[in-house]
Amino acid sequence: MNVITLKPPYLIFLGDVTELTYAKTGAGLAQWRPDACAGQLSLVKPGLALGLPDMNVEQAIAANVGSLIIGTATVGGVIPESWLDTLIEAAEAGLDIVSGAHGRLQDNPRLAAAAQKSGARLVDVRVPPAGLPVASGKKRSGKRLLTVGTDCAVGKKYTALALHAALKNAGMDADFRASGQTGIMISGQGIPMDSVVSDFLSGAAELLSPDNSPEHWDIIEGQGAIIHPAYGAVSVGLLMGSQPDAFVVCHEAGRTHIAGWPEIPLVKIAEIILRTVAVGRLTNPAIRCVGVSVNTSALAPDTRATYLQNLERQLGLPCVDPLIEGVDDIIECLVNDSIPEPVE
Amino acid sequence: MNVITLKPPYLIFLGDVTELTYAKTGAGLAQWRPDACAGQLSLVKPGLALGLPDMNVEQAIAANVGSLIIGTATVGGVIPESWLDTLIEAAEAGLDIVSGAHGRLQDNPRLAAAAQKSGARLVDVRVPPAGLPVASGKKRSGKRLLTVGTDCAVGKKYTALALHAALKNAGMDADFRASGQTGIMISGQGIPMDSVVSDFLSGAAELLSPDNSPEHWDIIEGQGAIIHPAYGAVSVGLLMGSQPDAFVVCHEAGRTHIAGWPEIPLVKIAEIILRTVAVGRLTNPAIRCVGVSVNTSALAPDTRATYLQNLERQLGLPCVDPLIEGVDDIIECLVNDSIPEPVE
After folding, report:
1. pLDDT in tens, B235-265
2. Phi, psi of A94 (to 5 degrees)
3. Which of A65, A108, A227, A313 could cysteine-pair with A60, CB 3.0–4.6 Å?
4. How far apart, in whole angstroms, are the C-alpha atoms of residue A61 and residue A40?
5. Domain B143-335 has what CATH class?
6. A261 touches chain B (CB under 8 A)
7. Domain A4-124 falls in which CATH fold?
């Protein structure tokens, strides 16, 4: 399969970072994949605590770790000199080195030499796999749900992970399908859709959620927003290739304009639904919205319940903050076929 | 400017090809850019006649030719051994070598060495320029028209070239903006949109038709079709970044299904118009359809007039075969602001 695939279990490398806000990838891995995280490696004391055992490279080898994952952001995507000795030690010992930064691991000659010697892989999860196909448009077996957004960074990955976890908890057969670098690290596989050449975008999306058993759900991490002035095409390509049966709209309460584009107002959730259905119908006529996932952290505690109730009344769909209400209402709507039509 | 730019005038290289159908690029150049074509070079006698003077490399140098353009298709995108001596001779003499094939010129070591020695460029027009930006979504000055399609290969490039020629004939200020390899060769510059990484697709489209004087028209070559199962995202990215004021729908009469996707029916022209307006409004609320360009070659001569009349009645827009009626009716609709609204 032409998707990036990581080798578990993982050693989460935290470098010299001491603030959680610069270690979102590592924290996401510890939260969503505790089973796959063998330990953490910090270069400073006291380092960050992700709740994992501290472990050096030697201990990681003894614990059969497969990959060292760089769990922190790097300035300008370049690996700091002070990290390099440890990364080289890990590569020499045969651990895959995994990075989500813009800079390529392979471009560091010492690291590249160490990996070549041991046979370890240098995996840049922002680099799409080679040989991606053109989309076929053919219907695939199994069921699919895609998270879509009113904008970037509104909880599409989080919502997909929460939906996947809820389905698994309910004893259903499901996979999380990652379409961005952090999602790929959490999932252990996936395709960074925004880095795929345009001609192969929908083909990559088809590959991401292949044929499966009839009752199986692929929960696909969305990208961008269908109305986004820069990334709309990525959202459309992912939507057309995913052929979702269902989708959930993700939104951040209080956001009024596209983040970084202060002159471009967001469109209403109802319009996102209509546009998503219009495009999604091209490859799956049965597509339907099954809920709205809202980050309500910007709302005062006494207004958030009213906000979600008003939204539910407007749209006729379950509207939840996944961190507070959880996603059970959406799962119920997903499993139940009789969904009210959206109303403006 | 981050667009591919070719150095005229051109020597059209025809290799050992003797059938016009395998020399579409060369024929397109001779038809649309006779001013830029200094001559043709065939390796066989009698070779193809594009109506250009026969010229060897030495004569081309004497005629101040800037680029040798490979005007023929290659099998699998690989340069045949029998062509190589001539291409190397041209590169050694300082001519840029231009190819639209999938294989990269740079991958041929002898050709690469020859070019490096003389300073000639090896230009693969399928390879997008480096450093493309993310779209800004900002409105640009000047006016823009985009050709869109009901499918691939329905005359989007031809129609754009015909509209550009008609505007120039009418004494108006206009540029043809190429978004695919053959268009880039004809225009001498452009960006191959389908090869651009998804994140930068709309940014590349913005770059393709930069700020211009208020009455200037950019006539932008479209790609794919907004409803295409594989290439829809390319069409959407180009549409959003182009911010067109006007668009023309291109169609081939008699085509019932997506070419190469026999199970996927085409949608009606009226639906293409509505979908294009819905997406185009996101970056230019004033977008409007100004006509339909139909390839009627598959229709019997006595039915084509009726076909176009029925279409005009349905859509309330000028509907022409650009090879037969020309595009003057569309130009009139473009210049005249009061366009009837499309009716289903």
Report:
1. 999 999 999 999 999 999 999 999 999 999 9
2. 100, 5
3. A65
4. 13
5. alpha beta
6. yes
7. Rossmann fold (3.40.50)
